[in-house]
Amino acid sequence: MSSSSFSQIRSQALNLEKQTESLLSKYSQFQTSSSSSVESSSEETRIEQQLQEILAKRDTIIGKLNRISQSSGEELTTSKLQQISRHREILQDHKRALNRITTQLQDERNRNNLLFSVQSDISNAKRRNDAMDADAYILEESQRVDNANNLADRLLQGALNTRDELAHQRQYLSNAQSKILSSLQNVPGLNVLISKINTRRKRDTLILASVIAICILLLFFV
């Protein structure tokens, strides 16, 4: 292979190095956006694949340049050999940069995934606690309702017992009154005696009222 072939292939290597630097710059920008995401975007994946493909091409091109240096004998100068070595060093630097950025992105996403998992566990635990609190509250309210119903049942039963007792007493008084009336009808002269007692009581009341009235008049006129 001639020196012109070496120059053409090296020109391709230089062009790919510029493309690699541009793509690495774009790829590194995902480090800031990865802090708010848990998965890589399609654009990030596409750039990473392009970088892998270009690095592989550059490795192949450096291999071609190395073969030219071995087959051309004295046609290649020391400077060109140094150029090949320099291309190889830049390729290794770009590979390390790609690996470093990829590792940082993955580490950041792992932290985000862990944080998301912790937050999810906390949220699930909180929901479970809320559900348990709600169940406990419902159970407590149910017990209160049962206690209120039991109290109402006892009060209602007491009212029913009181009603029955009053009905029994009324029946007892009614029977007693009937017996008294029956006795009054069966004893001769008892009604006349009671009537005389009532008449005398009325007369005594009238006399007492008259005496009181006279005393009051005397108080005014004396």
TrEMBL record:
Q: What does this protein do?
A: Involved in transport from the ER to the Golgi apparatus as well as in intra-Golgi transport. It belongs to a super-family of proteins called t-SNAREs or soluble NSF (N-ethylmaleimide-sensitive factor) attachment protein receptor.
InterPro entries hit by this protein:
Golgi_SNAP_su1
Q: Does the keyword Calcium apply?
A: no
Q: Which family does it belong to?
A: Belongs to the GOSR1 family.
| Location(s), subcellular | Golgi apparatus membrane
Domain of life where this protein originates = Eukaryota
Q: Keywords in UniProt for this one? A: ER-Golgi transport, Golgi apparatus, Membrane, Protein transport, Transmembrane, Transmembrane helix, Transport
**What membrane topology term does the record carry?**
Single-pass type IV membrane protein
Task: Provide the transmembrane region boundaries.
Answer: 205-221
The subunit field of the Swiss-Prot or TrEMBL record says: Component of several multiprotein Golgi SNARE complexes.
Where mainly located?
Answer: Golgi
Which residues does UniProt assign to the signal peptide? Answer: none
Q: What is this protein called?
A: Golgi SNAP receptor complex member 1
Q: Pfam families annotated for this entry?
A: V-SNARE_C (PF12352)
| Organism lineage string | Eukaryota, Fungi, Dikarya, Ascomycota, Saccharomycotina
